[in-house]
Each structure stands twice: as C-alpha cells, then as structure tokens.
Design brief:
The protein has eight helices and ten strands. It is of the alpha/beta class. The chain has a single domain, classed as 3-Layer(aba) Sandwich (Rossmann fold), CATH 3.40.50.300. It starts with a strand and ends with a helix. The structure holds adenosine-5'-triphosphate. Residues 11, 13, 15, 17, 35, 37-43, 190 line the site of adenosine-5'-triphosphate.
C-alpha cells in the first residue's frame, strides 16, 4: 500500500503547488492524477518519487516512511518523466540505458540482459545505435519509459507518458502497464488523455493544489462527462 498523507509544497517563488493532498493506492492498482495545467500533478509525482522534498506530509510505502528512507525509496520507486536534459545527448539509446542500468547497480550479464529486455519491451530494437539527440520526440519518450523499466520496482510512475507517441507505441505502453498490474505493482500516472483514463482503476482530481475528487473508474459510465467539468 502506498499512502500519501497531507502533502504540502510551496516553491521558492511562493507558488503553493500542493495544499495538503492525501491519497491511498493498493498493490496491483492503477491511479492517475487529473486536472488542469498547473494543478500540481507533476509536483506530486516528483514528491512520491522523492525527487522533490515536500514542506510537510508523509509518503508511506508498506508502512515505510519514504522521505526518511531514501535508499528504500530509490529501490522501490521508478519514474518516467520525459525530462530531456536527463539523458546524454551524444550517447546512443543502448549506451544511455547501460549507463542508467549501472547507476541502478547492474553489471556484466545482468546489465546486458536487462538493457536488452527493456529495449525489446519498448520496441526500440531498430534504434539501439542511434544517438539520443537524433531521436524523434516519441522515441525519446519510449527511451524514457525503457529507463524506468530498468528497475524491478514496486511503484511505477508515468508522467504524461503517452503524449507524443504513436498509437502502436501507446498500445505497447498499455500492454506493459497491464503486465505491471498483473505483477501486483502500483502504477501512477498524470495524464490528460481521456481514453487512457478510462483504462485505469482510480482517478484523483486535483485543482490548484487540492484534491477535489476521487473516482473509481469502473463505477462510472460517463467518465468523460464527469472529467470535462474539471478542465
Ligand atoms: N520548479 C518550479 N518552481 C516554481 N514553481 C513551479 C515549479 N514547478 C511547478 N511550479 C508551479 O507549481 C504549480 C503546479 O505545477 P505542476 O507542474 O505540478 O502542475 P501540473 O498539474 O503537472 O501541470 P501540467 O498539466 O501543466 O503538467 C504551477 O503553478 C507551477 O507553475
């Protein structure tokens, strides 16, 4: 179980991005944050991944306080954010993955096999020797997902992962997510894509840093109509 408790975050520019958000997500559940631009989705996902430290609040995974146990958090949580500057522009797809695999503690045969696996899972085989700077936007996204999959984590975070990728890649990503769910992983998203939101278990609606609603997708037929009220 992942528990997000009363998270507050104010940036240095005084913008209060999160004003006390609490959410619970069980194993094998998929959940997405939804809300207009600036609602606080990315901020919250970064805090859950412990990339950002909140001003107050707690994040518990299996009752372990992630903010106090960074090592545990790093082992158990993986995130795909699509931030371009975090890759090495002059390295190839494979070299980038090998580098980040090593940072995750993989070496030798384990590293080679894991990199091959994630390349296969994200359908990047024909691009392995292409430099990052030569990839299209969608291919960069796929590489970002591949990097997130290098780790055998418990919580997988995808921030607007399918934006800018083609339909075939979207399908591939959904299949991957389905596999993660089968393995009882917790999968978190932030997305504006209604079709994507229909496929998941729970939607948490954020507005100006506050949680204003939570929907169990299977209990509602008219998800689209409900969500459109909030954007
Ligand atoms: N690094 C930062 N420094 C200062 N303010 C920030 C920073 N990142 C985000 N903000 C502000 O915090 C608020 C929440 O931003 P956030 O990126 O979390 O929203 P979001 O819901 O993910 O938006 P989007 O749908 O546009 O991705 C916004 O008002 C934004 O301007």
């Amino acid at each position: 179980m992942l528990e997000i408790k009363e998270i507050r975050k104010r940036y240095k520019n005084k913008i209060e991005a999160l004003k006390g958000v609490s959410v619970k997500i069980g194993k094998g559940e998929t959940m997405s944050f939804f809300g207009e631009n600036g609602a606080g989705k990315t901020t919250l996902l970064k805090i859950i991944a412990t990339f950002l430290i909140p001003d107050s609040g707690k994040i518990l995974l299996n009752n372990v306080d992630l903010l106090k146990n960074q090592k545990y958090a790093k082992e158990k949580i993986t995130i795909s954010t699509g931030i371009e500057r975090s890759f090495y522009y002059r390295l190839t797809v494979k070299q980038n993955l090998e580098f980040f695999g090593m940072l995750n503690g993989l070496l030798g045969k384990a590293l080679k096999m894991t990199v091959e696996r994630v390349i296969e899972e994200t359908a990047l085989s024909e691009y392995t020797n292409i430099k990052y700077m030569e990839l299209s936007k969608g291919l960069k996204r796929r590489l970002d997902i591949a990097r997130a999959l290098l780790k055998e984590a418990e919580v997988y975070i995808f921030d607007e992962t399918t934006s800018g990728v083609d339909i075939k890649t979207q399908q591939k990503i959904y299949e991957l997510i389905e596999e993660l769910v089968q393995k009882k992983k917790i999968v978190l998203f932030a997305t504006h894509e209604i079709e994507e939101l229909k496929k998941i278990d729970k939607i948490v609606i954020l507005q100006k840093g506050r949680k204003i609603g939570e929907l169990n997708v299977r209990e509602h037929k008219e998800i689209e109509t409900i969500l459109l009220k909030y954007v």
